[in-house]
Design goal:
The complex is a heterodimer of chains A (83) and B (412). Chain A is an all-alpha fold. Chain A has one domain: Orthogonal Bundle (Non-ribosomal Peptide Synthetase Peptidyl Carrier Protein, Chain A). Helices cover 54% and strands 0% of the residues of chain A. Chain A contains 4 helices and no strands. In chain A, helix 1 crosses helix 3 and helix 1 packs across helix 4. By secondary structure, chain B is an alpha/beta fold. Chain B has a 10-stranded mixed β-sheet with strand order 5-4-6-8-1-9-15-14-10-11, with helices on both faces. In chain B, strands 2-3-7 form a 3-stranded mixed β-sheet. Chain B has a two-stranded antiparallel ribbon with strand order 12-13. In chain B, strand 14 and strand 15 form a beta hairpin. In chain B, helix 7 packs across helix 13 and helix 10 crosses helix 11. Chain B starts with 7 loop residues before the first strand and ends with a strand. The chains are: A mainly alpha (83), B alpha/beta (412). Chains A and B meet through helix 3 of A and helix 2 of B.
Chain lengths: 83, 412
C-alpha cells in the first residue's frame, strides 16, 4: 500500500468514527487529537478497524505511533507493504 | 414539617413513542387510536410486529456520540433535553450537583451483547475483535450516565431495574430523593431499546406470548378474545420532577402532582402475574394518596395483550374498583405496544393531558371483547369525554413478580 493510500485509509477510518471531522486544515505532523474531536476510545476504534480490515495486531506500546497522520503512515507503511 | 409530605410535581415531559416524539402529537394519536406499529426483520428471528421510534436523533448531540453510545442513551438524551425544554427549565437553574437522574430499565446490554457476539462471529469468534465499547455500553447506568454527560449533570445517576414496572419505579425514586432533600430536581423516567434484541422476541415467542396479526397495527389486542401476546416496542419518557414550592416559585407549568404510589412483589412465579398482589399494590397507592377507588377518574391499565395477564389485571381491578362507578379504564399498549421499562411513564404521560381536555383515550383493537376482562366503564375504540378529570392511576407490572402503581392528581 502506498503512503497516500495509507493516509486515505486512516482518514477514511476517522470519517467512519466522526463524519463531521474536518480534514481541510489538518496538519499531518501535528497530533490528531489536538485537531479533531478524537479521544482515547476513538484511537482504539482506529486500532480495531486496522485489525478488521488488514489483520494488523498493533501492540499497545506502539499506540503512540498513531499520534499524527504522518506518524501513522510511517508506522503502517512497512506493515502494509504487501496490502 | 414531615418531609415525607413534601409535595412533588411533574413540570416537564420529554418522550419518544412509536407514534410520536412529543406529548402533543402523542396525545392526538392516542385519542385518535392511531397505531404506527410496524413489521421489523430481526437477525436470526425474522419478521415481527414492533414499535419503532422516529425522532430527531441529532437534535441534542452529534452523530458521533450516538454511534459511541447506545440506542437507549440516544433515546434518553433526546427525552431529557425535551423534558427540560418543555419545563422551560435551563439546566443551570439548579446546582448541577443537586440534580438526580433516575432511569428505569427492563433490561440493558442485551442488544449490545447480541451485536458483539454477531460481530465476532464474522471473525471466527476471535475475541480480539470484541469491542472496547462493550463495557461502557452495557453497564446498567449507561442510559442515565449518557444523559449526565450530555447535560453536565454532576448529581447522582443510576438505573432502576424492575422489569416492566421500572419506569414507575424510577418515578417513585425521584419523588423519594426530592422528599429526602438528596436532590433539588430529578429527571426520572424509563427507556427501552428492546426492539434491537432478537433474543427478547424469541423468548416471548418461546413462551407463547408474542403478539401477531396480519396487520402489525392490530397485533396488540388487550381485552380482545383473539389476543395472542405482547408487541415489543422501543420508547422512552423522562419527567422533570420538582418540589411544588420550587415549581411555584419559578412560575412553572405543572402537569400533575404525584400523590400516591405503591410497589410490591408477587413472591410466586417468574412470569405469571398475580391479581391478589396487584390489587394490594393499587390499595397501597390509594392509601398513600389518601384516596378512595371512586376518587380515581382514569385507570390506565398495564394489560399487554397476553391471555392470562389481562384477565389477572382485570380481576385485580375488579377487587379494588368494584364499587367505583366513576373510574374509567383504558389501555395505551393497544396503540403503542409494550415499551417495557418506559411503558408506565410513557402511558401515564399520554394520559396527563386529560387534565386539560377531560378525555379518556380509548383502548383499540377490541372487536370481540373477552367477558373475562369485563369491567365497568371500559373505554373501547372511541375516546370518552368526562365532566372533569382530576386523578389518574397507572398500573405497571413486570416479570419475576414486580408490581407498581402511580397516582397523579391535577393541580387545582
Amino acid at each position: 500500500m502506498t503512503r497516500d493510500a495509507i493516509r486515505d485509509l486512516i482518514l477514511e477510518i476517522i470519517e467512519d468514527i466522526d463524519e463531521d471531522a474536518d480534514f481541510d486544515t489538518l496538519e499531518a505532523d501535528k497530533p490528531l487529537r489536538d485537531q479533531l474531536d478524537l479521544d482515547s476510545m476513538d484511537f482504539l476504534d482506529i486500532v480495531m478497524e486496522l485489525r478488521k480490515r488488514h489483520k494488523l495486531q498493533i501492540p499497545e506500546e506502539d499506540y503512540p505511533e498513531l499520534a499524527t497522520l504522518d506518524s501513522c503512515v510511517n508506522y503502517l507503511e512497512p506493515l502494509l507493504a504487501d496490502a | 414539617m414531615n418531609i415525607l409530605n413534601t409535595r412533588i410535581v411533574i413540570t416537564g415531559v420529554g418522550l419518544a413513542a412509536p407514534n410520536a416524539d412529543n406529548l402533543t402529537e402523542f396525545r392526538q394519536k392516542l385519542l385518535a387510536g392511531t397505531s404506527e406499529i410496524t413489521e421489523i426483520d430481526l437477525r436470526y428471528f425474522g419478521k415481527a410486529p414492533a414499535g419503532i421510534c422516529t425522532f430527531p436523533e441529532t437534535k441534542y448531540r452529534k452523530k458521533k456520540e450516538n454511534k459511541r453510545g447506545t440506542r437507549a442513551g440516544c433515546l434518553g438524551v433526546y427525552c431529557a433535553n425535551e423534558a427540560l425544554a418543555d419545563a422551560t427549565l435551563p439546566i443551570d437553574h439548579y446546582d448541577s450537583s443537586r440534580i438526580g437522574v433516575y432511569i428505569g430499565l427492563t433490561e440493558h446490554g442485551t442488544v449490545e451483547t447480541e451485536n458483539e457476539v454477531y460481530n465476532i462471529s464474522q471473525y471466527d469468534y476471535n475475541v480480539d475483535y470484541w469491542t472496547h465499547h462493550h463495557n461502557p455500553r452495557t453497564v446498567l447506568n449507561n442510559p442515565a450516565g449518557e444523559i449526565t454527560m450530555n447535560l453536565g449533570i454532576t448529581g447522582p445517576h443510576y438505573a432502576i431495574g424492575a422489569a416492566c414496572a421500572a419506569g414507575n419505579a424510577s418515578l417513585i425514586q425521584g419523588v423519594q430523593m426530592l422528599r429526602l432533600g438528596e436532590v433539588d430536581m430529578a429527571l426520572a423516567g424509563g427507556i427501552s431499546e428492546s426492539t434491537g434484541s432478537f433474543g427478547i422476541f424469541a423468548s416471548f415467542q418461546a413462551q407463547g406470548a408474542l403478539g401477531s396479526a396480519d396487520d402489525p397495527r392490530k397485533a396488540c389486542r388487550p381485552f380482545d378474545l383473539s389476543r395472542n401476546g405482547i408487541v415489543v416496542s422501543e420508547g422512552a419518557c423522562i419527567y422533570v420532577l420538582e418540589r411544588l414550592d420550587d415549581a411555584l416559585e419559578r412560575g412553572a407549568k405543572i402537569y400533575a402532582e404525584i400523590v400516591g404510589y405503591g410497589m410490591n412483589s408477587d413472591a410466586r412465579d417468574f412470569v405469571l402475574p398475580y391479581d391478589k398482589r396487584q390489587a394490594e399494590c393499587m390499595e397501597l397507592a390509594l392509601a398513600k394518596a389518601g384516596l378512595a377507588p371512586e376518587d380515581i377518574d382514569i385507570l390506565n391499565t398495564h394489560a399487554t395483550g397476553t391471555k392470562q395477564g389481562d384477565i389477572e389485571e382485570c380481576k385485580a381491578i375488579r377487587k379494588v374498583f368494584a364499587n367505583s362507578k366513576s373510574t374509567y379504564i383504558n389501555n395505551s399498549k393497544s396503540i403503542i405496544g409494550h415499551a417495557m421499562g418506559a411503558a408506565g411513564v410513557l402511558e401515564l404521560a399520554g394520559n396527563l393531558p386529560a387534565f386539560e381536555d377531560n378525555l379518556v383515550h380509548p383502548t383499540i383493537n377490541v372487536t370481540d371483547f373477552d367477558p373475562e376482562c369485563d369491567l365497568p366503564n371500559m373505554v373501547l375504540q372511541q375516546p370518552v369525554k368526562l365532566d372533569s378529570v382530576n386523578t389518574i392511576l397507572n398500573n405497571s407490572f413486570g416479570m419475576v413478580g414486580i408490581n407498581s402503581v402511580i397516582i397523579v392528581k391535577k393541580m387545582q
